[in-house]
C-alpha cells in the first residue's frame, strides 16, 4: 500500500475526502427501519491525479466535490435495501462513474442501528478500484 493510496503502488496518492455527509434513508432489515427511516453518515475518499487539474487550474479535469457530495447523498437516499454493505457499494459505483477517479474508499455509518447494547457507532468500510 502506498502512503495515502489504497491498494496499488501505481495509484496516485492525491485524493479528495468528503467527511460527515448526512442523509436520511430507509435502509435496514427491520420493518420500523424501512417505515421510519434514520440518519446515515458517509465518509468518502476518492483517489485521482490532481496534478492534471492543478496545472491548468481547470475544474473540468477533476471531480467537483460539491456535485459529488450531492450524488453520494442521492445514492444513499434512493431505493431502500436491507444491508448498508449494499448502500456502500452503490456509493462506490457512483464515485467511480467519474472518469478521473481511480479508487474510492467509502465508510457508511449507521449511528442509530438497532443494537441492544450501548454503542457509539456502527459502520462498514469498503475500498474499490476502477476495473
Quick summary:
The chain is α+β, with helices and mostly antiparallel strands. Helices cover 30% and strands 27% of the residues.
Rounded average pLDDT: 92
Order of helices and strands: EHEHHHEE
- Side-by-side strand order of the widest sheet: 1-2-3-4
Number of continuous helical runs: 4
Low-confidence stretches: none
Proportion in β-strands: 25-35%
Main beta sheet: 4 strands, antiparallel
The coarse overall form would be elongated
The gyration radius over C-alpha positions equals 16 Å
Count every beta strand, where a strand is a DSSP E run of 2 or more residues: 4
Q: Termini distance?
A: 18 Å
Structural class: alpha+beta
Helix percentage: 25-40%
How would you characterize the overall build of this protein?
The chain is 30% helix and 27% strand. The chain is α+β, with helices and mostly antiparallel strands and 131 residues long. The chain is elongated, with a radius of gyration of 16 Å. The model has no long low-confidence stretch (mean pLDDT 92).
Show the helix and strand layout.
Elements: E1 15-25, H1 31-36, E2 38-47, H2 50-56, H3 65-77, H4 84-96, E3 103-109, E4 123-129
Antiparallel strand pairs: 1-2, 2-3, 3-4
Helix pairs in contact: 3-4
Task: Please tag this protein with its features.
four-stranded antiparallel β-sheet, 4 helices, alpha+beta, 131 residues, elongated, 27% strand
Amino acid at each position: 500500500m502506498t502512503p495515502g493510496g489504497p491498494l496499488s503502488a501505481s495509484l496516485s496518492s492525491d485524493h479528495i475526502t468528503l467527511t460527515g455527509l448526512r442523509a436520511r434513508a430507509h435502509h435496514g432489515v427491520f420493518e420500523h427501519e424501512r417505515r421510519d427511516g434514520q440518519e446515515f453518515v458517509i465518509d468518502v475518499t476518492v483517489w485521482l491525479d490532481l496534478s492534471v487539474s492543478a496545472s491548468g487550474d481547470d475544474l473540468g479535469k477533476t471531480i467537483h466535490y460539491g456535485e459529488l457530495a450531492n450524488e453520494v447523498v442521492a445514492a444513499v437516499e434512493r431505493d431502500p435495501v436491507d444491508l448498508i454493505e449494499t448502500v456502500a457499494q452503490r456509493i462506490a459505483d457512483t464515485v467511480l462513474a467519474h472518469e478521473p477517479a481511480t479508487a474510492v474508499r467509502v465508510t457508511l455509518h449507521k449511528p442509530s442501528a438497532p443494537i441492544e447494547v450501548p454503542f457509539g457507532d456502527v459502520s462498514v468500510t469498503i475500498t474499490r478500484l476502477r476495473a
